[in-house]
Amino acid sequence: MRRIVLAGLGAAVTLVFALAAAAAAPTKTGGFANYSLAETTGTTCPGNSACSNIAAEPAIRADGDGRFFGSSENGLGGGTVAFRSTDNGLHYTTLASPDGVSQTNDTGFAPGGGDTDLAVAPDKNAAGSYNVYVASLSLANIDVSTSTDAGATWRLSPVTTPETIDDREWIAADTNNKVCISYHDAPQGITVGCSTDAGLTFTQFASAIDASHAFQISENSIGNLAIDPSSHVIYQTYSAITTAAETTCAPQLGVSAGTCNYHGVYMAVSTDGGASFTDYPVYINPDATVGYGHQFVNVSVDRAGNVYSVYTDDHHVYYSFSTDHGRTWSGPFLITTTSGTQIFPWSTAGDAGKLDVVYYQTPYYDGVNTPDNYPASAAWTVGFAQNLKALAPGSAWSRQTASPTNHFGGVCESGVTCTGNRDLFDDFGVAASPTTGLASIIYSDDQFDPSGPNTSGCDASTNNTGTCDHTAIATQTAGTGIFGSKKK
User: Fold this and answer.
1) How many CA atoms lie within 13 A of 351 on its CB side?
2) What integer best gives the mean pLDDT of the chain?
3) Residue 9: Cβ within 10 Å count
4) Which among 39, 40, 74 is positioned nearest to 55, based on CA atoms?
5) Please, are residues 253 and 194 in contact by the beta-carbon 8 Å criterion?
6) Nearest Cα to 233, choosing from 163, 292, 280?
7) Residue 443 confidence (pLDDT) above 50
8) C-alpha 227 chain-centroid distance
9) How many angstroms separate the CA atoms of 434 and 481, rounded?
10) Rounded to an integer, what distance in angstroms lies between the CA atom of residue 393 and that of residue 387?
11) By three-state DSSP, how is residue 111 classified?
């Protein structure tokens, strides 16, 4: 199951604040259009009375022609919903459910639906489209649905993994027919499996945790999977303990559990197509009580093959970068402001050195409570940060708020073990169009909209509860993009 640990704030992090804070004061880069998406196939939003949904924990990508594809989940066994925009994110149309083609389906959305993630192939298939892949969890396996016609139809392929239990899967695509998944396996190791027939069969599986880091099995928090389409290098990121000795104090299994934390950020790198991995440290905080195991450490790759690692200590968001395919890293560098709280980061990279990062943010921070226990006065919004010279240490970030308030109060980060409010679930995402360079953000929102539409049961009395939980869009309508001309 998904796990998370609580983080302290160490002296080394304070030092990073001091070094990075002077990089840039917040500036605005352009406006965003916000609206809710729909559940019903064929509905285009905004502007329709059916533009409401019950989905959460969404993902988003863009294809080479500038179309955005999003997915979101209705919960384990409830299936996924998918969306597509052909006008730079100004409108999204709900596609047929990627899971609705199952022979066992009698609900319209089955059998998957847990922990949805989405990938788009970098190269066109024989029919002239970019394959789109949606992955989600079921009780028995990981479900991968493939569309070869831009989301018009789907083929569902349940993946039989080598393990009996899988959790928190991710998906990434390469060429016109290769797709890989990663997931937490039964002992909480990290497995990467690859398909060379567009997700029909997965025949190659390998551990992303190499032999020299075997002590991190059962003591790690998984991050996403990414593939560089130019070099075909595969990147799997995670956070973990940093030495074998720390298994005695680690959050999950240690005899003094929780007295040290996942204070190391790592990148598992495969240069042989996913057959094997070597793990490199991105950043190890010398304060062992600091934790980066918050949903989720993130990796993205720009067009020039530079790699970016983005992570949070449950207070602020940082990044590191690598120019040698993940072997050595520069950083950490502060992305967010030095005040308030920023969590749940996700990034998308464009041309060389250009990076967009999103996160949930609130002005609240008391230095004592974790976000799980924040008071009702803590107002959360979507934060958007952009750096056009991210390969320059200490370079400036422009920052702005991209959404209205999407939640008040605590944000639980312990996955299915949460006992507090989990309306924002565990992650959300951002993608940028290679044709305009502008971003579209997909996020969770539990606020009642007086101007509507709202899902059944969502009204002023159920505001800020799961009854009003839904997936929304924030699309950048002006400002600077992270792509120049379309890649040839």
Assistant:
1) 16
2) 89
3) 17
4) 74
5) no
6) 280
7) yes
8) 15
9) 9
10) 11
11) coil
- Assign 356 to helix, strand or coil: strand
Q: Which of helix, strand or coil describes residue 22?
A: helix
Q: Residue 324, Cβ neighbours under 10 Å: how many?
A: 11
Q: How far apart are CA 219 and CA 217, in angstroms?
A: 5
pLDDT in tens, 227-277: 999 999 999 999 999 999 999 999 888 888 889 999 999 999 999 999 999
DSSP 20: H
Q: What's the rounded Cα separation, in Å, for the pair 405 and 427? A: 17
Write out the two tokens for 71: 């997915």
Burial class of residue 89, CB neighbours in 10 A (0-12, 13-18, 19+): buried
Domains belonging to the chain, first-starting first, are: 11-476 (2.120.10.10)
pLDDT digits (tens, 9 = 90+) for 68-95: 999 998 876 677 899 999 999 999 999 9
Sheet containing 317-322: order of strands:
298-301, 307-312, 317-322, 330-334
How far is CA 194 from its chain centroid?
Answer: 20
What is the rounded average pLDDT of the residues 383-402? 97
DSSP 167-220: EEEEEEEETTTEEEEEEE-TTS-EEEEEESSTTS---EEEESS-GGGGGGTTSE
Question: For residues 136 and 116, what is the distance between their CA atoms, to the nearest angstrom?
Answer: 4
d(CA 131, CA 22): 43
Look up residue 144 and give its two tokens.
């991968």
Burial class (CB in 10 A: 0-12, 13-18, 19+), 212: exposed
Q: Is the pLDDT of residue 450 over 60?
A: yes
Sign of CA dihedral 432, 361, 301, 17: positive
In this structure, the strands spanning 44-45 and 234-240 are unpaired
| The token pair that represents 64 in the structure block | 């080479």
In terms of phi and psi (left: phi > 0; alpha: psi -120 to 50; beta: otherwise), the region of 273 is left
Spatial contact of 381 and 403, defined as CB atoms under 8 Å apart: yes
